[in-house]
Design brief:
Rossmann fold; TrpB-like_PALP_sf (chains A, B); homodimer; about 325 residues; L-serine ammonia-lyase activity (chains A, B); pyridoxal phosphate binding (chains A, B)
Chain lengths: ~325, ~325
Amino acid sequence: MTDITRIEAAAARMAGHIRRTPLLSSPFVDALAGRRVLVKAECLQHTGSFKARGGWSALSALPPEARARGVIAYSSGNHAQGVAAAARAFEAPAVIVMPADAPRLKIDNTRTLGAEVVLYDRATEDRDAIGAALAAERGLTLIRPYDEVEVIAGQGTCGLEIAEQALEAGVTQADVLTCCGGGGLTAGVALALEARAPGLRARPAEPAGFDDTARSLAAGSIQRNASLSGSICDAIVTPEPGTLTFPILQRLCGPGLVVSDDEAMRAMAVAFARLKIVLEPGGAVALAAALFRREEIEGDAVICIASGGNVDGAMFCEALARFGTGD
Amino acid sequence: MTDITRIEAAAARMAGHIRRTPLLSSPFVDALAGRRVLVKAECLQHTGSFKARGGWSALSALPPEARARGVIAYSSGNHAQGVAAAARAFEAPAVIVMPADAPRLKIDNTRTLGAEVVLYDRATEDRDAIGAALAAERGLTLIRPYDEVEVIAGQGTCGLEIAEQALEAGVTQADVLTCCGGGGLTAGVALALEARAPGLRARPAEPAGFDDTARSLAAGSIQRNASLSGSICDAIVTPEPGTLTFPILQRLCGPGLVVSDDEAMRAMAVAFARLKIVLEPGGAVALAAALFRREEIEGDAVICIASGGNVDGAMFCEALARFGTGD
């Protein structure tokens, strides 16, 4: 079970390796949102997303013998880079199983971080079978992207920082909006806030059509998404909340918030113009919820996690061309 | 005279008002530059540039009676926003004299920050005469953009942070590249480093054709630029080094570095792809020098100040379209 003790242990293992990201703000963003907005800029984390926290936490928690044999992850995106970067730091072998049609840049980045990338054909090959065979053959440890105790603990360190930084900013009562896929970040942050800033409450934000967590929270049981593709917020599209994460979300989180793809892109434009940070669509949904769901949020202030910035120039510039400064 | 005592006094007045910006890095940037690169992300400062430091320092140093009468500045850009933001915080009137053909967005931003914007026609009107008349009539204090003791002290606080953050990162010997216009940032940072991190040396970076500071340092006397327009790095184009700043630069700085407009744009693309920050061309010249003048730099590490991010979407996307991830 992930708990505050495990989150603080992960934070101690990360010291000097994981960046304490800043809590940004702008009077222009406040004016748009109708209240004070504090933005935890996890896009500035190593590898461009909070996933570096979970990767570091998982690798650093492994017994040295297991770590020396290596790790394996399935990911076409941010989790791959988080695991690869941590493995490189520990000089541990890392195998990342990625679909052959993943963006070239993400494949190249993962390789440049020192991981062995194994490509498979989504149409004809079974990812899990390929991974299981490799893991058995080489004694690799599988690092799941969210349903993994030490990964949730690692993401929770972001919540420890928010608890401290919100207090420094004079905010003790607020919703903390997270960009939510499988719920690893949301669960970890919710646990950290429960222990260290009980006036702050985590709430998941998701793209429309892929709001499995919001619906699961409303229904009181795990609900699946009808589809697994078709959102530009690819980084946070998962089939359903995790079996480890959902009970934590259910106990601690407020209602989910849902935004459109266009609203996520408009939030990217606002972040460009007003905060000078680069967000990917999936990393902008929490800010989009703060900006465009003001009537679903209470209080004078809201905190949102800008969870990642791994976006290509074409998508980014489409957001700027369509939405200007987002006003 | 600006000295370390004045810089530390400015830092004390800023506490809680000016952001301690992060020192970012990426293995991809290191690989491109051929050495370790640490990037001081001043684009994340309030108002999107380091100019918020000088504005705050100058306003907070004024006698309360003078501050209550108000301040005036000539600027079409970052200095205007820095002064306006500080004046608003102190509830002091601020008048910003801007050319009528300044970008609409910059005029609007300055107004939204609470300043009174007075527009003049560059072709037919005399900016200084307009400003002097307003200042005399209302008792306003002029805040110059760089040749101003308390402004230099304010920019120097960026150097205090670099001294601490470089030590935390294990770097004690390195060049610190600054984006240099009139030399306020460079002079302030050089003074702070002299006192607090003597192994770090400031070096100005400038756009080709507007390298008055590099030529002045080489010649040992103030040299002017032949032209005052024609660079996309408009934020750091000034006629010549300041009379207060140049003696400081001459005593403390290493040789200047000069980059092309294209290299500045390529550095913007690298900062987008690898650091997830938004830089304007003038704010990217120091990073460009770190990336593309490696043979003019010595040592295992280099620090560069990414001084501002106030760029419009069209210019930014031109950089991404032309240079991709900058590799």
